[in-house]
Every structure is written in C-alpha cells, then in structure tokens.
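queue> pop job 88
queue> type: inverse folding (structure -> sequence)
queue> payload:
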C-alpha cells in the first residue's frame, strides 16, 4: 500500500517521518519549488514532544529550541491574570513545552526524510477515483501519479479538502495577527517563560526561541484581507502597543521589518467527516483551529502519530474511520475552546470580571485540563 501526502508543512513532514520509521510506503508532494526557511516561532507542547520522542528527533529539537517553564497571561503592564508553572507537567512527561523557530523544526524533519521521497514544484490540482480502487493525482504541471491512498496535509486552504468536500468553509475570527522574530536577549529570569498580555481589545505574546531570538505575535480586531503599508508596520505596531510594558515596543523595533508577517486568524467550520473512500485530511486541512490554545501544530503532529500507528497495526485495511474515531472529539474540543478563548481575550466590556474569574480558577482544574490535552495513546 502506497500513500501520497500532499503538503510539506509540519503535519505533512511529521507524517512522512512517522511513515518512514514504521516502514509505510509514501511520497510527499509540495507545491513550492524549494523549501525555504520561512515562518516565525512555534510552541511544541508535551503531546507533540512525545510524538517526536518516539520518532527519535526530540534531542535535536531540545538542542535547537528553548524550554518553557511558566506560562503567564497578564495585563498590558505584565501583572498576572493567570500564571501557570510547568513543574508538574515536567515531572509527569519528563519535559515541559519547547519553543523553536518553525523553519528549524521544518529543516530537521526534512533532514530525516530521504530526498527521493519529497517531490517539490508539484502543485495538486485534482484527483480521480479509478476502477482498480487506486486514486489518480493530477498536478498543475500536467503530470499525474497513482496511489492507493491520499493524505491531505495542505493546510487551512487545502486544495484536497476543497475537491473532496466543496461545501467546507473557513471562519474568520475578526482578528488579525502579526508575527516576527526579534533579535533580542530577554532577561535571564524570563527566558523560560511565555507571556501573553491582554489590553484593550489587543494582545501581545512572546517567548525566547533560541539564543538572541524572541518569537512574538500581536493580535488586533480588523477587517479580513487587509494589507499594511510597506515600511510602516513597525510604526503602526509600536503606536498600537504604546501603553504596554516598554519591552513590547523594544521587541517590535528589534525585528527586521521585512520579517514581520501578517495573517488573518481563521479556523475551519467543523467537518462531520475528514475522509471519503481512500482519501483523508489531517492537521489544518481537516480541523484547522485558531492558535489561542497553542495546539494547532501539536494536533497535526498527533495526527501523524495516530495515523501511522493505525496503518502499521492494520496494514491491509483502510483505517481512516478508526483514525477519525480516535481523534475527532479531542480536536473538536480544542478548536471550540480556542475560539472562545480568542473571543474572550478581546472583550470590550466585562474585562474586570473576566480577569477575576481567570485568576480564581482552581489550580487542580487547570492541571487536569492540561494533562488531558497533553495525553496521547502511545500504543494503539
């Protein structure tokens, strides 16, 4: 049985590596002509790190990233609203979260996958089900290929999903996000800490991802599909966050303006099914979530683990329905909670009540929810 994986993002590459480790036949197809080092930071929670530990790349991630020991949601002056130390998480799993540059993670995954398994400049156009039970992939360059199964790992704007489920829709949150990597050294006492500061319908988060590098994001309400004036992004953001702790503007000004990216925050209306016949969607292609729980990438990574493990266990079966049964409830819960958290962070009224409630959530309840989110079945 041979699998085609469309998309060489974090989810597609992790799936490829999991297939490689388990002896599952596959090919990856990616539309870009070369895999360039782009992107900003990503936080890898313990559920993602458990998968990478099984795949043998955890030590390299640790060497290239930065451990997160404490997660703080605060007001714009950094005074805490919610403050969670990761001591118990580290005791149970052996590590807490790690922050790493997305490009470094992508690069180390690529280095673990044989070159002949990754096909670049192959933009997916369509598929056709064949009478022999196989699926024929058609690419924009006029070429085609036949496989037994197709995995759509091509992100929130997935072409595979649009062809498979043309009624599927993305949902704009009403928020847009700027991301960047500041060339900056944080003070030692906060270099293992994530901050997310909530102001008047705007917020700013940051953490160290490597020596001399700080990943940050800034979120504000806005209309979709808007663009920034070239050369004016730093001025715009420093004005927007002028009432925040002075460190915020230092981070913005320490970021090369050409490296600041703007993206609208959207998710995917939940699909009833992620699969049809011998085609299945994973990661953002099947269940894109807003980034407010820090779990978008982690859930794609979990998908790779469950999908590869089930294929290895049932090598002669179509396991896509089993895969969905294992994954859907957790993914839907995270997407729902992430959407609500994002909306709550930008309330115009009732912020005092919101902050009071967040401060007084019982610690044991927070820990229980965290452990549930970080749990994966290592043996299926």
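queue> result:
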């Amino acid at each position: 049985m041979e699998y085609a994986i469309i998309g060489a993002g974090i989810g597609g590459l992790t799936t490829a590596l999991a297939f490689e480790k388990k002896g599952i036949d596959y090919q990856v197809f990616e539309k870009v002509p070369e895999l360039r080092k782009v992107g900003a930071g990503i936080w890898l929670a313990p559920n993602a790190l458990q998968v990478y530990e099984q795949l043998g790349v955890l030590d390299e991630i640790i060497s290239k990233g930065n451990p997160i020991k404490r997660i703080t949601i605060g007001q714009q002056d950094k005074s805490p609203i919610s403050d969670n130390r990761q001591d118990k998480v580290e005791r149970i799993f052996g590590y807490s979260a790690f922050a790493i540059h997305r490009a470094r993670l992508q690069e180390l995954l690529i280095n673990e996958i044989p070159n002949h398994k990754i096909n670049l400049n192959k933009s997916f156009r369509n598929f056709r089900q064949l009478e022999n039970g196989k699926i024929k992939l058609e690419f924009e360059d006029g070429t085609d290929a036949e496989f037994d199964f197709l995995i759509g790992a091509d992100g929130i704007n997935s072409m595979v999903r649009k062809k498979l489920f043309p009624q599927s829709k993305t949902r704009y949150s009403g928020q847009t996000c700027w991301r960047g990597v500041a060339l900056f050294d944080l003070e030692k006492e906060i270099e293992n800490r994530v901050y997310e500061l909530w102001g008047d319908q705007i917020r700013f988060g940051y953490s160290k991802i490597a020596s001399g590098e700080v990943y940050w994001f800034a979120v504000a309400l806005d209309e979709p599909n808007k663009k920034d004036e070239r050369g004016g992004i730093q001025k715009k953001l420093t004005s927007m966050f002028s009432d925040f702790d002075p460190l915020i503007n230092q981070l913005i000004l320490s970021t090369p303006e050409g490296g600041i990216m703007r993206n609208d925050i959207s998710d995917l209306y939940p699909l009833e099914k992620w699969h049809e016949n011998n085609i299945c969607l994973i990661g953002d292609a099947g269940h894109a979530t807003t980034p407010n729980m820090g779990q978008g990438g982690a859930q794609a990574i979990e998908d790779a683990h469950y999908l590869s493990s089930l294929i290895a266990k049932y090598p002669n079966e179509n396991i896509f329905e089993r895969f969905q049964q294992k994954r859907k409830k957790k993914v839907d819960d995270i997407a729902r909670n992430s959407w609500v958290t994002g909306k709550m962070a930008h309330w115009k009224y009732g912020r005092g009540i919101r902050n009071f409630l967040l401060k007084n959530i019982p610690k044991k309840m927070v820990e229980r929810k965290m452990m549930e989110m970080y749990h994966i079945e290592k043996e299926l």
